[in-house]
């Protein structure tokens, strides 16, 4: 399953010793072709980790033979030596595969600001290369976890018999334009790199980009789409984009469900917007209100905090035409109190907050979580 | 002291019964003249509470006879009826003072979305009017508290014998451009409304506007500056602005110290910026990183989270020229690890994070707090 659901891919996940606790921490995903067309989307953070700088260069060529991913260290803010480490990592993968380092993508996740233990990374690559198999998708997904409590995997079958598979990690620092999130999506359809690139951007924009658990954007976010062409199927583009989007949406949903310390998965559904941009802006502002996220944690349908968060945006709306529903109860109508807030049932894990801007026909949904004492605890102690 | 430190002002703070717990909840500050020049700065949130809409209109005239402030309810998102309540409140104050409602400012703070118990507000105004005195500054400062654990007051003596006094409240929702913050500043200097307006804007911009405890901007933020002219002193403008700024800075510092659930007062000092705007933008982005605020709570000098927050801004900088010091130890130099992070002592309550953008001569400091389980607790339970 996972990245090895499509034909033409093998993978492995091993314990290289990068993590102190002996858990799996290095994954290798190899495209056996015949095609190696690929596309990538990366963090918009201007402070980019070494593996992001490296992989952006690789993806410019539109071809990826293999992806090596490690948890246990982000290799971010590590200067020129950190970039050399990424380069050496790619060279090592190229060596064991008898290929070119220029077509090896590298992803890292973990603490920022510390060098990787390169002896362990390099021996881990040798170990992983020896374990590459069609069953390697699950161990690979396991190896990229940091504070993730579960592996995230997904796959969909497309018309004509091709597959799209994927894995992802990311539990904190999930925000605008990706997250501390790594994801590799694979397919055995046969499509050129420029088509994969358009498809991936469209899919990410409405899935991973609409997850915002804590407003923090990572230095390492990377989503890759690799095509082996092993089925020879050339799918209809809309259908293919729909399948890739489904896989991304499924993985994004799993990320939200597993967000650090969260007890609620909150969908902020903005409707009646003058534009999709307005809807996303409003959804993101509401998703970032610590006060609202605390209220939902306390199962308090505090719609005033929703309006306060809407009010700081530049979206088109009139304050006295705003309507807000929480789990289906319209607690705010026309900018003032609406139906009885005691009717709102906030006990379920899934919470939907609907905001009607009464300004147009557009809509968008942003996915976030509540803010909990456990989030504080996990992130107070992460590096110790 | 507080707002009655300057001559020409009387005040009162009473328990009107708006708060269920019987604490003081209504304050009245009256300017006995001879001048009643005044200026105001209000929330930039587009969802504005009724008292903000009202007081903005009053301040357009540049004259304020009295300010009535209540805690226990924000009168925000209450529709046309809420605005009528504010109007009736001003009319009642005008009636008891034998003055015009058009020169009565109104401030409210508390829960959003619920109407005020107007019978209690109106009888409270009568009660307060009977207790107006030169000693009323402290009870007034007490009456405007919500989750504030202490009253916030300040005063400074100016050259030539005039005074500047002030009170403030605000413990959560402290953010961009003010906070759920109310503040009344008074002076017995003699200056016209347009001068007060310029002075207040300058003072607020570098004090209250640079406090950002949780990134949430309230619907009710109001800072008023009232001048009685009772000393007849016409101060030097720069000196006057400096005194008003000192009072605002002192009050802002007290707000940060008392922020909900905080255990650390964090100064984000941005230096080497290409512009003051860049410095403020970077400071605010860092102040809003939940991940960093959790790390500081855990006394973890996690400078990687500082760089991640700098990286999402559009400020002028090169990633490999960023330097970061935490409590004086330069843990990040040139965008990579610098001095040994184990040298950083994060045990004191006051924490200074210095960010050198290496891009110019400008600087600014943003004040914030750590993120704690207590913040989550207070804000999960606020309305219950």
UniProtKB/TrEMBL annotation, chains A, B:
Annotated site (Involved in the stabilization of negative charge on the oxyanion by the formation of the oxyanion hole): 109-110
Single GO biological process annotation from the record: ornithine biosynthetic process
Keyword vocabulary terms for this entry: Acyltransferase, Amino-acid biosynthesis, Arginine biosynthesis, Autocatalytic cleavage, Cytoplasm, Multifunctional enzyme, Transferase
A Pfam family assignment: ArgJ
UniProt-annotated binding residues for substrate: 146, 169, 180, 260, 379, 384
Cell location: Cytoplasm
Top EC class for this record: transferase
InterPro entries according to UniProt: Arg_biosynth_ArgJ (IPR002813), ArgJ-like_dom_sf (IPR016117), ArgJ_beta_C (IPR042195)
Enzyme Commission number, as recorded: 2.3.1.35, 2.3.1.1
Annotated catalysed reactions: L-glutamate + acetyl-CoA = N-acetyl-L-glutamate + CoA + H(+); N(2)-acetyl-L-ornithine + L-glutamate = N-acetyl-L-glutamate + L-ornithine
Site (Cleavage): 179-180
GO molecular function, one term: L-glutamate N-acetyltransferase activity, acting on acetyl-L-ornithine as donor
Self-association state and partner proteins as the record states: Heterotetramer of two alpha and two beta chains.
Protein family according to the UniProt entry: Belongs to the ArgJ family.
Protein name from the UniProt record: Arginine biosynthesis bifunctional protein ArgJ
Gene symbol of the encoding locus: argJ
